[in-house]
């Protein structure tokens, strides 16, 4: 298996606060890596270090064919950061759509600004992606006119629009009313079936069991367990994993 994302000995400190402690992981091409763990354990920070929304303090990060080393105080070059970040698409808990733009414009924006695609080309790709997430008929609506589930599906289409090598999801359904969770998870599952490489932070354990090729549990900034969904979620051997799962399910 070849890794799409690899982290070696990654540490992250916010001032004196040691938030990620010696993280070693890999996300394989065409596979789904699910990250679970209690609130405040460092899951979002870990995900944000994968696309350099946060800079690791120490360690190395590889995304696709770009490898970067971090040492306290060194600032990576901006163009390197942007090149790495462009290999990834991020889907946020709170959707983060541009409220003043239509759904179609939201999905076109980065294609035109970042990839310098023509308007026609960007519109064609955006229309395809909106069809894929079941929202072709909402192209001209504004985000405020959509349900949370629809907005998050736009968020996924937008993340896909720049043809990322890997999609990163930070609790994509935790802001949603329970009845809207399923439609978003279904879209993610379809992408997984198509072989999209994904890293997903989620508390939806049933979904995680179905979609994950590998599960990692983070606690207090450390990876405390790693394995298949059967090993980590269905038959957890580790006491801290068991107690976490019993608290959330
Ligand atoms: P999770 O996503 O698992 O809930 P986070 O990665 O958001 O955890 O946070 C892990 C820890 O890092 C928390 O203690 C949080 O307060 C701290 N933290 C996160 N982001 C920052 C930041 N930008 N500055 C300072 N501390 C932060
Ligand atoms: Mg978080």
From TrEMBL:
Does this entry carry the keyword Membrane? Answer: yes
Q: Which UniProt keywords apply?
A: ATP-binding, Cell membrane, Coiled coil, Hydrolase, Membrane, Nucleotide-binding, Transport
Q: How does it sit in the membrane?
A: Peripheral membrane protein
Chain segments annotated as transmembrane: none
The EC number of this protein is: 3.6.3.-
Which CDD domains has this protein been placed in? ABC_HisP_GlnQ
- Record InterPro entries: AAA+_ATPase, ABC_ATPase_HisP-typ, ABC_transporter-like_ATP-bd, ABC_transporter-like_CS, MetN_ABC_transporter-like, P-loop_NTPase
Please name the PROSITE patterns in this protein's record.
ABC_TRANSPORTER_1, ABC_TRANSPORTER_2
Q: What is a single Pfam family found in this protein's UniProt entry?
A: ABC_tran
Does the record's keyword annotation contain Coiled coil?
yes
Q: What is the main EC category here?
A: hydrolase
Question: Where in this chain does the entry annotate a coiled-coil region?
Answer: 105-132
Domain of life of the source: Bacteria
Where does this protein reside within or beyond the cell? Answer: Cell membrane
Report domain ABC transporter positions: 5-245
Please provide, alphabetically and separated by semicolons, the GO molecular function terms listed in this UniProt record: ATP binding; hydrolase activity
Q: PANTHER family recorded for this chain? A: AMINO ACID IMPORT ATP-BINDING PROTEIN, L-CYSTINE IMPORT ATP-BINDING PROTEIN TCYN
Q: What is the name attached to this protein's record?
A: Cystine transport system ATP-binding protein
